[in-house]
């Protein structure tokens, strides 16, 4: 029986791993282990389909080590014994243990001494937080690495490799794929390379070739094979960016129903990561100091959504959308920074006042550094009148409080009190 495309396209060398550059990139820790041939047991955790098995396979291939794969939930202690016996015979075996968080105590107790001896290099794979779900005994003998969700570009690269690879992929077939179909495969599976490759293979095998033998994969075919409608129906992707734009503008405009509608369109198209990123941008750009607690809650909601994945991710995101859409709005903080940036870029910097300059070195007093600086905590209300801006910008105002939200009104009152004292 022919193995699935996703299985055939697993990396056989560390250079073939897609994404995870923080672990396998040049001079990063897993790359260093492979280059030095100094492997240690590790736990890889993250959402399904983003490369846990691929990294284990690539490590084995790059180091020419024996590689075995078991499942902590379904395979038995006897299966582990077979791997250990092989390790004793060959010197070392890399064991990929799926669902490592479900490793029971008898299996764990059996494995521990072999991990300590280095005969078995355990690569545990889990979608659960290992700091919560994995026993301290295993954690103390492994390094824990979090895998990051793959980007659309990462998945597109994996698909293109599969289409062009004549040995392991679909390269022997005469395949053309429309750009919007390729993007739909990549986007609709939410960074799951395995799911994208499975859908691509189904499309290639189930599409009737043209008279010249060409298998042409269109967006409609991609939608059928993924069973999700595309958010984008034009090659340039305008509709895709229109939905993202409408999503943020609806939140900014306090239309909670429209905001929910566009969130639904993003999630139905598999754009969980884009929805999450856009919500954080909205929180800081459009709500900001109008309701800082809603901003903090949004960050927590996004973190929960990324951990949960769809479909459950929709629950914290729905809460965040209602919270942001109906919150007081303020963009005063980032407008203040943009105004300051404009001055700096225009060359309006000026000399830092001497009393603010660093005075923690020998000879600073002779240069007048730090002399005359007044420590605000030594004064009532922890404030004292003194100049902080350069002379050329003295009395320049960047921050103008918005007139919405109790929190920013409190900031405005504080600013006004300081201004009155300063006058």
From TrEMBL:
SMART domains: AAA (SM00382). GO terms for biological process: DNA synthesis involved in DNA repair; DNA-templated DNA replication; proteolysis. Signal peptide: none annotated. InterPro entries: AAA+_ATPase, AAA_assoc_2, AAA_ATPase_RarA/MGS1/WRNIP1, ATPase_AAA_core, DNA_pol3_clamp-load_cplx_C, MgsA_C, P-loop_NTPase. Residues 38-150 form the AAA+ ATPase domain. One of its GO terms (molecular function) is ATP binding. It comes from the Bacteria. Keywords: ATP-binding, Hydrolase, Nucleotide-binding, Protease. It holds the Pfam family MgsA_C. Belongs to the AAA ATPase family. RarA/MGS1/WRNIP1 subfamily. This is Replication-associated recombination protein A.
